[in-house]
Amino acid sequence: MGLLRGNIRAVSLDWFEERLRQIAQIPASCQDDEYDERPRGLFLVSHDIDGMSEWRVHNGGLVIGLPDGDYHYLDA
Prior knowledge:
single chain; alpha+beta; three-stranded antiparallel β-sheet; 1 helix; globular
């Protein structure tokens, strides 16, 4: 697992969200009851006005909400 940092303009955020939703729906290459190999990831989105949100890719979807942890040190 690694940490990537990047900047996306607000006008591109809808495009990025849609791509993540499409990626999340990629099926596993083989069914395995012990290990779910579908795409998953965590994105922390920080906005100058709206603050930080957490984007979780898992279980075939994208869930956007408030951060579960204290990630504000990444805003530096």
